[in-house]
Every structure is written in structure tokens, then in C-alpha cells.
What we know:
Blueprint: H1 2-10, H2 12-18, H3 43-47, H4 68-71, H5 78-114, H6 121-127, H7 133-148, H8 155-168, H9 175-200, H10 207-212, H11 218-232, H12 235-251, H13 259-272, E1 295-296, E2 312-317, E3 320-321, E4 334-339, E5 342-346, E6 356-358, E7 366-368, E8 378-380, E9 383-386, H14 411-415, H15 463-471, H16 506-522, E10 527-534, E11 538-545, H17 551-555, H18 558-565, E12 571-573, E13 582-587, H19 596-600, H20 603-606, E14 613-619, E15 624-628, E16 635-638, H21 645-659, E17 665-670, H22 684-687, E18 689-690, H23 702-726, H24 731-739, E19 754-759, H25 762-769, H26 771-783, E20 789-795, H27 805-809, E21 813-816, H28 822-829, E22 842-847, E23 850-856, H29 861-872, E24 881-882, H30 908-918, H31 923-930, H32 934-946, H33 966-977
Parallel strand pairs: 2-10, 16-20, 16-21, 17-19, 18-24, 19-20
Antiparallel strand pairs: 1-3, 4-5, 4-9, 6-7, 8-9, 10-11, 11-13, 12-13, 14-15, 14-23, 21-22, 22-23
Helix pairs in contact: 1-23, 5-7, 5-8, 7-11, 8-9, 9-11, 9-12, 16-18, 23-26, 30-31, 31-32
Amino acid sequence: MAKNTYKQTNTAPASRANEPRPARASAPVADDVAPAREQPRREPRNKEKPKAAPRAARPPMRLPSVKLGGMLSFLRDRRFQLFLGFFFLLSSIYLTIAFVSFLFTGHADQSVVENLANTPVKEAGQESSNLLGLVGAWAAQLLIYKGFGVAAFAVIPVVFFLGYKIVFRRADVSVSYVLALSLFTMLWLSVLLGYVVISMQAPDADPILAHRLDFLSGGVGYEAALWLSSLIGWGTVLLLAFLLISFVVFFFNVTTLGLGRGVGEEAAPAVATPEVAVNRAGNAPRFSPVAEEELVEDDALESEDEDDDALNITLHDRRPVAATPAPAEPEVVRTGAVAGGAVALSVAPAAVAAPAIAASAGAAATVAGAGAVAAKAAASGPSFSFEMPTAEPEVAPTATSASRVPTPLSLADLADENTPLPTATASALPLTVEPAKPEAPFEIEDKTGELDPSAGADMAVIAEEDEDAEAMPAVNYDPTLDLPRYQYPTLELLNDYGAPKAQVTKEELEANKDRIVETLGHYGINIASIKATIGPTVTLYEIVPDAGVRISKIKSLEDDIALSLAALGIRIIAPIPGKGTIGIEVPNTKKEMVSIRSVFATDKFINTEMDLPISFGRTITNEVFVVDLAKMPHLLMAGATGQGKSVGLNVILASLLYKRHPSELKFVLVDPKKVELSIFNKIERHFLAKLPDTEEAIITDTKKVVNTLNSLCMEMDRRYDLLKDAGCRNLKEYNRKFVERRLNPKKGHRYMPFIVLVIDELADLMMTAGKEVETPIARLAQLARAIGIHLIVATQRPSVNVITGIIKANFPCRISFKVTSKIDSRTILDAGGADQLVGQGDMLISQGSDIIRVQCAFIDTPEVDRLCDFVGEQQGYPDAYQLPEVAGEDGGGNGGEDFDPADRDSMFEEAARVIVTHQQGSTSLIQRKLKLGYNRAGRLIDQLEHAGIVGPFEGSKAREVLIPDEYSLEQLLNTMQK
Ligand SMILES: Nc1ncnc2c1ncn2[C@@H]1O[C@H](COP(=O)(O)OP(=O)(O)OP(=O)(O)O)[C@@H](O)[C@H]1O
């Protein structure tokens, strides 16, 4: 059944082209276009209408339909918009002048305005003293004196922003936000001032002052305050205070009273680490400081051996060494906390002198101070962050060894215990060091711990980018505004294990080198040079054999070398691609754990432009290994039990959570083991996707897995239809078009997040459901890349009946942790080697022909827990992202010609009411209002058609609604029940 469904959807584009147009002439609302994907189901039915449906219920006359869309089309005319926008902008200036003038001339103009009915307009105009004449006097009198007193000034920002938004098409200006704030301010302040005025009218108060100030509250505020004070007396003040607190709580989404955090905690780390001042609208990355900085130190160790026959060994150490603390930068930033409308500002030590701040809750803050150019305030719960450019570069350079010149060391240095690096010079071999590629220094900031909300490809928020954005002609749709206050996880959530420490001693290096040279010597293989590179788990010895030595000979000695080194996990890479040397990887006696924090806090990850970056860990040369899942485009992961698969999956999920906004990414998590991924339940409303009407977002049941996979196939087909409709080749192009508002949401277009399907144990699914899961997985793997659906499939049994040929063929990127046999290694990687790994996150990544050894980063369960809590506790969507409903799941009934009124969908009546109330026969309306999947909504509309409630399918137009009002509908529903 499920399969039929998505097959049917597949045929959509073809069938649409051939579809007969129904004879019916008009649609009720031209603009209300049914989504294109609604079409395929329809074509035969238009011709062969069943007789059984209760058509008798159809009303005799059709309602006149109004082409509202056509009438209002002038609203889309840019010229009209500009006209309207400038009208509002100028009106705001006009009102400002009129209001200010009223403060001085209001009393004089009062009689003029009130006698307007009895005085000729011209005369009245001449008598008025307001700077903007009679109209100015009248408007001010109406809004201030009769209306809301001085609080009426709050009208001005609403008018101004309305005009500004229309003229400049600023998506970041929310008129409803300004409107709500202004409206509340106006009402609240006028009542408060009304209460003040009433208090001043007390018998013992100054009557002249009372008379002069009676305009303060305006008529509305005065009357309301009078009414309140007669009811609750001075309780009015308490009520007003309560209303203010409630407003601040709801409007600014205050969930904690973390005022201390706003100022104290955030200012403190700024001393230790340079911060980058950014603004919310600028989508800044917000990082927490890291105690360590990752530096790569390269010291050249080179010496001439006295013995001419001795070999050279080159030691190449790219291990991170202890961080040099970054100097405190004279940065400014900062944070303020709002309490009861007042703003407190904290600044780092060298901030500009005493900025003066004036702001009211939610209003833009103005900052004036030496060197301060601008200040932006962005509401973030009760906290506001301010940006103040300074003369200092925004990103302060951190101390790094990158600028160090490699220092040649002599043998004497090597013998010295104080030499900083472990050396590998058995028999006092001269060493040379290649200049290492140090990790680029990373910059960290700590504000509220947000990473870049825009995330996307642009993690780094750099001033130039903001300028570019400003220069753009229109400002675009921003999907992250769904959850504008979403804060990205901070690095503080992750354990800090301090700077990595060198684990390999020079004795170990020397001993290994000697044994390698000796073993090869036994087989008559002489070596021209040898070089060692120390990684976190293994050390790579690169050897250049003498001319004439056959590579295959060295490769065949793998076991012998392992035996002579008495070490497990030797891997020989002969030759190292692109290098012309032969690599021998020897596990370090003491492994070094690569903490997740150390790989996230790198420039490479922070400033990556990848769509779905995954920071896996460190390579053998200590470089952070970051890959783009969007390019992979799917990932197959294998490894025997206990070798680090689950940790690896958590690293992937955490990487994506750190870099993506909930509007840009959704996970479908399949966890047959039931316990591995359950921790991610907390982020259901932010990042998870699920089938409609299902309880749990994390799928543990095989039956549901099949439905979910089929549903993803349907989503894929739908996305392809939309892409085709939009003339785009991939998701990125499509989303770009959508963001630029070149696609009409009424035609079903929407911003499409990436979907990452994670299956934690494929073996279990293959055993229980076999082909039922294999086919959709293969189909998704073949086709889903372009439309942003990516698969990560893990298994502990990489045997051929789990990783079948069809699955393998569609997963070019594969990861293997340690497996138990060479055969397993060949099954997953098409090469041996995975059986030689040392476990605990030691892994091989194969991308096409390249195989790279990486030490997977380690993320502990409490860290994942904290991360999920951090995300999950924030405001999310009302529900998980809904995948298309798979036909036949529940709800009952079908939509075909054999529709039986007794077998209709349980939501039939609700759907009918929605359609009749809105007088719009569209599937997407049912989907939206009743939160149903597309299939079910499609079935419902079929049933409604057969019940005579909506007309037949009309191509791109919405169906005609045949029932004029709710009363007629209820009668019809009653008849159907009998
Ligand atoms: N990258 C890593 N660095 C250090 N230790 C690791 C790493 N990955 C895993 N380990 C260690 O190995 C243990 C087992 O890892 P994990 O639970 O990921 O294995 P698994 O392959 O998922 O096993 P299973 O298939 O039985 O669930 C961890 O508890 C941890 O101690």
C-alpha cells in the first residue's frame, strides 16, 4: 500500500501534462491555487463521475464568485507600493511635528478644533497655532488630547516602520512587532498617566498644575484610570505593574530571570578571550571561549650524522601543544540586561569611555560615546546585545606558532631531555622537519553562546558581509525568523580536557624506527630516508626505499613488521597516494583522546562554508577533518560492537546541531536498538521530523521504519516536482529562489530544510524487513542528493546480506571503525585495513579511491545530554516537522469512486467545515488547518467531492465550494448520518 502511494506520486508530472481540463468555468478565488502536486490523482475521475455520491445535496444555485485576487492586484504594483510607503513615511514626520507643536499650542488650539463645526474651515485654519495648521491641530487634538495623551507618540514608530518596510522591502523589520510594542506602550502609559492626573486632582493638589498637565493621559487614559481607580483604588498601580511584567515576559519571551548572566557572566570571559562584536540581525556566530587554543608547533630537528651510512629520519610532529593564552583584547561589546524598561550595559576593560545609553524596553538603544558609531539592540529574552565598532580589528589574532620559523636542532638538542618534542633519532640520525601546516588560529567570542543564526554557508559573521547585505536591493525571506530568538549551542556545553599532551616519547619513536629499518633490512630492503609524523592514535613512518625495491614486497611484509614491532594495528600504505613514499602506521603506546570541543573550536569548523559540515576528528597529521555531508552525499558506517559507532553518530549529529538553525535542518532518526538515539527526543520540536499522527519522533519499530522510508520517498518526489516547477536543479538553487521571493508559496512552494536520515542499525532492519527497507533506502540514496535528503546508515555487521550490492553501490562514502575480519573490511571499504584499526574511534574513511585514517572525536553522553537540553529548552516549533503521510496508515476510507459515506475519513466533517467556512476547496487548506499529511488531505478532498461539498478538480485553480454556508453544511452532514 505504501509503495503504491509513492509510485502514484511519481507519475505526477507526466499525468499532469495529459490531464483533461474539466468543463467547469470559474473558480471561486483565482489566487487560491491548489498545489500542483494535488493534480495526479484526479484525471480519470473527471470523466467517469460516480453516480452513487449524494449529489442531490448540491444547492440549486451557485454563489457569485468574486475575483478578489484580480481586484487587489494593484497592491502588487511596485509603483503603488512606493506611493503608499512614502505616504506612511511622510505621515510619520507630519505626526511628529504636529504632536510636538501640540505640546506648546495645544491649549490655544483646543477651542478652535472643538468649534470646527460652527466655524468656516478657512477661518479656523487661520486661528490655529499648530505648526502644521488646522489638520495638525486636529490630528494632535484627536490622538493626544482625546486619545492617549503623550503616549500617542507611540503611533509614530508604527507609521514610520510601515512606510520603511514597504519602501525598502525590509524583511527584518517586523511591523507587527513594532505595532504590538507601540500599542501596549500607548495604552499602558496613558492609563498610568491618567492615574497620575487623577491623583493630582486631589483636593490638596495644585489646581493650576493639574489643569496644565491634564493632556498627559488623554481622554482614553483618563477615563480608563478613573474607572480603574474607582474599582480598585491604588490597586491600579499594582495592576499596571503586573501588566507591564506580563507584557515583558511574553513579548520578550523571558523564561529565566537570568539578569546576572546577561551582565556578569558574559562580560567575564571577554577578558580572557577576544570577542567579536556582532548583532543579531547580522547573524553572528557566538562562540564561547575555549581555555585552550590549538597551536601546532613545528620544530625542525636536523643534524648530520657522523656515520655516513646512517639513515636520516625526519620527525614531523603536528601535535597540538599547550595553548598560549590569547591576550585580552581591547574589545568592546557588550551585553545589557533589561529590567523594567531600563538597560544596563557592561563593557570590557578597554571599551570606549562611558557610553551613554537611553533605551526603553524593546526600543532601539542609542549608544553615544567616543568611537562608538552605532549600537544595535536585539531582544534576546531579557538580554540585549550591543555592537559598537572600535578601532580594533573585529577578529583579534590569537597567538600561534604559525609565524615561528622552524628551528634546526642538532643531535645535542635531541639528546637533551628538555627538548620540547619527542625525537626519533635512533643511532643519532639527522632529522629534518617539514614546515607543518598549522591549524589556522581560531577566534572565539562569548556572548549568549550563539553560533551564527543564519548559519547556512556563512558561519563567520564578518562586517563586510553585513555591508553586502545592506547593499542588496531587496532584503530577502529569512527562514530563521521562524525562531528568531534561537540560540546556537555554545562550546561551554562540551567538556574541556585541556590542551592535548604529547603521548609519544622519543624512545618509542627511535625504537620503532630501528625495528622497521631492521625488519626491512632482513628482507634485503634498504631505505633511503624515513620520516615520522605523530598523530593522536598512530604514528606514520614514511619511508623512501632505495631505488629498485618493489612496493609489493614491502606490502607483503605487513605481518612481519607487525610481529617485529610487537604491535597490533600496523597498516602499510604502499604507496601513499600523491607522495611517492611508503607509509607504515604504528599505533602509539599511549593513545591521545581527541575531544569534541577541540575539533569544534577550530577555525576550519567555525568558518566553514559547507552546507552540512561534520567535524569528525583529527587525521594522522593532526589536521581537523571536516567533511560536508551535502557533498558526500550519503554515509555508510560500519564497525564491530564497541568500536565507536555510536560516538561517531553523536559526533555527526552534534556537528550539525552546532552549525544549523532548526529551520534549515531536520533529522529522521531510526533507532532499532531503542536506546542509542533516544537522548535526541528533547529536540523533537526543533530538529526532528516524523510521520503525522505518530507519538514518538524517534522510530524504533520496524513497521514504522518502512512507512517512514516510504514517506521520505514521497517527500523526495514532491520536492522534485517543486524543483521542476521552479526550474531548479538542486535544493540550493531552489531555496535561493525561494529566499529571493521568486517562488509563490500559494503554489505549494516552501523553504525546504535539509533532511538527514540516520539509521543506527541497518542489520536489524534488513533481517526483519529485508526488501521493504532496502528498496526505499536504495531509491533515496540514488536520487535524494539533489533535493537535500541525506542518509547516514550504520551497522555493526558489514556482511553482504546487510550491505547489499545495491546499497553499497549508492553509498560512495563509507566509514569503518574496527571490524573483526578482513572480509568485513573489504565489504565495507572494498579494501583491507579496517581489521587492523586499534578501536576506540580509530577509523578509516573511504571517499572513492582515497582512504584516510582519522581518530574520531569523543563526545560523551552527558555532553550530548547538555547539548540536547540546551536546544530543547528553547522555544521550538509547535510540533516536529511533518513528513508526508503514507497512504492507508489510518483515518480510514478512501477517496476513490467507490466512496462509501459510511466509510469516510474520521476527519471528514472537520474538513468539510474548514472548506465551507473558508469557501475554498483546496487540499493544502485542509493540510494546514487540520495538520494532516498531504495524502490524507487528498483523500479527504476526494471524499468531499463525492459528497457534493466541493466541485471537481479544476487544474491549477482551487475547487469550487458547492455549499454556501455552515448551516447548509450541517443539514447535509445530518442527512449523511441517517
Ligand atoms: N572517539 C573515541 N575516542 C575515545 N574513546 C572512544 C571513542 N569512541 C568510542 N570510544 C570508547 O568506546 C566505547 C564504545 O563506543 P560506542 O558506544 O560508540 O561503540 P559502538 O560501536 O556504538 O558499540 P555498539 O555497537 O555496541 O553500540 C565508548 O564508551 C568509549 O569509551
